[in-house]
Every structure is written in structure tokens, then in C-alpha cells.
Write a structure and sequence with these properties.
The complex is a heterodimer of chains A (214) and B (236). Chain A has four helices and 13 strands. With 214 residues, chain A is an alpha/beta fold. In chain A, 45% of the residues are buried. By secondary structure, chain B is of the alpha/beta class. Chain B has helices at 9-13, 34-43, 61-67, 86-92, 103-115, 178-184, 225-230; strands at residues 21-24, 48-51, 71-76, 97-100, 119-122, 136-139, 142-148, 152-162, 168-169, 185-195, 215-218. In chain B, helix 2 (34-43) runs parallel beside helix 3 and helix 5 crosses helix 6 (178-184). The N and C termini of chain B lie far apart (37 Å). The mean pLDDT of chain B is 97.
């Protein structure tokens, strides 16, 4: 059995679907890798919820500015042409539909575009939502990058989410280690298979019916 | 002549009573007014409701205020983080209340309070458990959730430079919630790295106009939460 795409390859594949000039917000984890794979000849401008457009790569250890962080609380740099602003302006960009693409990780994503990525709903869990619910409602295109299944082999692409929703009917495209999957009015449809991956394997590892590539 | 400068942190915080609602600026470590928070620990007010994006890290700053038993309720968007231990422990023991608010809604509720808007409709949380029990309304064919403004008795904020009128500038992403909180609190207390003369801040560069600020105290070499944590420090 082939292993499909690596995390880096998933990020690179997602980057290919982001148009030149897009304003992009990247979630924590695999989505952050997208910034390393901007296709030749394109420019993306990165937004971070805590008040910056034009975020650059992490600094060297000696070049850290303690007042320059991203939404994941990691130190970053500012590219020429960047801008700082307060939180209400930052979320006006999100909620107001000014950000073109948001790439998020997830726990579950459903065939109707629902996403659950903030809470397992376990009784002892401390609820923590951050900006996820604002992003999924406001950003024009919601992309998800995720392994196709959990570490224990459970489907993450499901008929309906069992975890509490972050947003309903908001996801448009999913990039997994096995395939690129579109969320259509008729449910999941494979747009592209990873090299060496057969459609049957994707169907087997998906928690609901998924349509083959057209 | 108006002069909002206060000589010491202790004097700036002296009148915060038990039971007060206090907004604290900062997003994680960046922009956190550590000296004001530690001053509030020294001052000792209890039963506080604190509004911040997070719940502090390590055993300094906001985490220390919570750990000292002074906070009975937190309003925040993200109470967990890799270095947040104090809040989760107290929460699991049932010793502190939590209201989780999506980050953009938190910002807008604070802004609305400062702007005199008692409530607004937002698409955020529609279809989720965080919308349960809230008024919803269809506007132009889409469903929105009503959210109320969020006011405070006091705001504690850190800035880069301030003049005696309370005009403020911030540094990079340390700005975050602070300008909004300055608007939304009855009394806004600012610690500034540099206190400059009236006229030294270009009016085009003022981020928070002094009308939103009540007290300014100069803290020339503010400590940073990450530095304190890296050094293994705790407070008091």
C-alpha cells in the first residue's frame, strides 16, 4: 500500500489551489506548512488574527522581537509592506469577507461541509474556541488539510460530525494524505488522487459515500 | 493643564475594588501588562471578573493573578495553551468560572461597548452550541446571532509610548485587544514604556486617542512574560 502524500506534499498541493494575490489565513499545524510552498510566480499575503497582514517566516533565534507573534503565539517576522492593526479590525477582515482563503486543520469534516475542530465535547474538556468560529463563517474559501483518518484509523471525513461543530456547511475543499476532496451539493467527491492511491482505498477510509473523480 | 501621569503602579491601581470587572490587554505574552498585573496582585483586590484572550502562562502575569485566588470568573476565547497550568487546575476544581467567547466576537463586544452599541448580530457561532439560547435573526437571507456589548470597570493596558494626555502608540502585534479595551472600560490604566512630552507623538500616528485613557504610568523597562517563564520565575 502506498503512503500517499506527506504533510509537506499536502501543504504544497493546497498551495497550488490558492490564487496569486490572495489574502490567506493559515491555521496551526499542517496548514502553517503551506507558506513554504508558494508556487513560483505567485504572492500570498498572510493574515494573522492577532493583528497583522504581511507576516513573514520565523526569525532566527537572535532576531526575535518579543512583540511580534502570530496567532499560534510563535515568533514571526514582518515582510516589507506589512501592516499592524487591533483585534476588531483584524476580525473585520475575517468576518467582513476580506480574507480570500483560510486553511485549517480539523478533527472531523462532514459531507455537507460542516467542520468540527475546536472541542471533542468530552465532559472534562476545557472549551477553547479562539478565532476558528469567526474564520469559518467569514473567510471566502475554507480549505481543510488533514490526515484522511485519525491515528487509530477512524474516518475524519464523515457523513455528519459527532463532535461539536465549529461551523455548518462552510468547507469547500479538503486536502488529505490520500486525495483532494471537494465538498459538493451531493457530498464528497474526489477531485484528485495522491500518486499510487486507488479510489477504493479512499472510499474505504471515508466514513460516508464519496464519489470518484470525474 | 491635563496630566494623566500617575507616579507609581501602586497609585494607578489603588482604587480597584473587590468584585470589579477588569479587562487586561495582550494576546498570550505579547502586549501583556505584566507590571500592572503584578501590581494588582500586590494590591489584593479579589472576586475579580477578568477579560483577556487567554488565561496566562506559567506562574507570572495573569496566571499568577488567577493562581493567587483573586479571579472568580474569566471571559476569554482560548483558556488553554501549552504553558497554561494554573487556570486549568482551578477550573477542574470548580474554583473559577469560565465564559468562552469566539475571539472575533470578544473583540467586537468590547469595541461595541466603547462605541455605545449595546448589541450586534454576527454570523459567528451560527449552527454551533455556542449559539444556543441566544437570539437569532435572519437578515438578507442569512442567519445571525445577537451578541451583547462587553463593558468593564477597569482596563489594564501596556503601550509603547504615551503622552500626558493619554495619546498612545503600540508596538507591532502587542497592540491586539488593547485599543478596544481602552474604549470599553470606565477607567483605563496604561503602562507605557516611554512617557513623551505633549506634541511628541505625531497626531497622524496616534493609535488610541487620549480621550479613552484615564491614567498613565511609566514603566521604562517592562518585563516580558516569555522571558520570565524562560527564567522559571513566579510571582509574588
Amino acid at each position: 500500500m502506498s503512503s500517499g502524500w506527506t504533510r509537506e506534499q499536502m501543504a504544497a498541493r493546497a498551495a497550488r489551489d490558492i490564487p496569486d494575490g490572495a489574502y490567506v489565513n493559515l491555521g496551526i499545524g499542517i496548514p502553517e506548512l503551506v507558506a513554504r510552498f508558494v508556487p513560483e510566480g505567485r504572492e500570498f499575503i498572510y493574515h494573522t488574527e492577532n493583528g497583522m497582514l504581511g507576516m513573514g517566516p520565523p526569525p532566527g533565534d537572535d532576531d526575535r522581537d518579543l512583540d511580534l507573534m502570530n496567532a499560534g503565539k510563535k515568533y514571526v517576522t514582518a515582510l516589507p509592506g506589512s501592516a499592524y492593526f487591533h483585534h476588531a479590525d483584524s476580525f473585520s477582515m475575517i468576518r467582513g469577507g476580506h480574507i480570500d482563503v483560510c486553511v485549517l486543520g480539523t478533527m472531523q469534516v462532514a459531507a455537507n461541509g460542516d467542520i468540527a475542530n475546536w472541542s471533542t465535547g468530552a465532559p472534562d474538556a476545557i472549551p477553547a474556541v479562539g478565532g476558528a468560529m469567526d474564520l469559518v463563517q467569514g473567510v471566502k474559501n475554507i480549505f481543510v488539510i488533514t490526515q484522511h483518518t485519525t491515528r487509530t484509523g477512524d474516518a475524519k471525513l464523515v457523513e455528519r460530525c459527532t463532535y461539536p461543530l465549529t461551523g455548518a456547511g462552510v468547507v469547500s475543499r479538503i486536502f488529505t494524505d490520500l486525495a483532494v476532496v471537494n465538498v459538493t451539493p451531493d457530498g464528497f467527491r474526489v477531485a484528485e488522487l495522491a500518486p499510487g492511491i486507488a479510489f477504493d482505498e479512499v472510499q474505504e477510509k471515508t466514513g460516508t459515500t464519496i464519489a470518484p473523480p470525474q | 493643564m491635563i496630566d494623566k501621569q500617575v507616579p507609581t503602579v501602586a497609585q494607578a491601581l489603588a482604587d480597584i475594588p473587590d468584585g470589579a470587572t477588569v479587562m487586561i490587554g495582550g494576546f498570550g505574552a505579547s502586549g501583556s501588562p505584566i507590571e500592572l498585573i503584578h501590581g494588582l496582585i500586590d494590591q489584593g483586590a479579589t472576586d475579580l471578573t477578568v477579560i483577556n484572550n487567554n488565561t496566562g502562562n506559567g506562574e507570572v502575569g495573569l496566571a499568577a493573578l488567577i493562581g493567587n485566588g483573586q479571579v472568580s470568573r474569566m471571559i476569554c476565547s482560548f483558556p488553554r495553551s501549552s504553558q497554561s497550568r494554573v487556570f486549568p487546575k482551578l477550573y477542574r476544581e470548580g474554583r473559577i468560572q469560565l465564559e468562552v467567547v469566539p475571539q472575533g466576537t470578544l473583540a467586537e463586544r468590547i469595541r461595541a461597548a466603547g462605541a455605545g452599541i449595546p448589541a450586534f448580530y454576527t454570523p459567528t457561532t451560527v449552527g454551533t452550541i455556542l449559539a444556543e439560547g441566544k437570539e437569532q435573526r435572519e437578515i438578507d437571507g442569512r442567519t445571525y446571532v445577537m451578541e451583547p456589548w462587553l463593558k468593564a470597570d477597569f482596563a489594564l493596558v501596556k503601550c509603547e509610548s504615551a503622552d500626558p494626555l493619554g495619546n498612545l502608540t503600540f508596538n507591532k502585534t502587542a497592540r491586539n485587544f488593547s485599543p478596544l479595551m481602552c474604549m470599553a472600560a470606565t477607567t483605563t490604566i496604561v503602562q507605557t514604556k516611554r512617557l513623551v512630552a505633549r506634541g511628541d507623538i505625531d497626531p497622524e500616528h496616534v493609535v488610541t486617542p487620549g480621550i479613552f485613557v484615564n491614567r498613565v504610568v511609566e514603566v521604562p523597562n517592562p518585563v516580558h512574560e516569555d522571558t520570565l517563564i524562560a527564567d522559571g520565575r513566579s510571582y509574588p
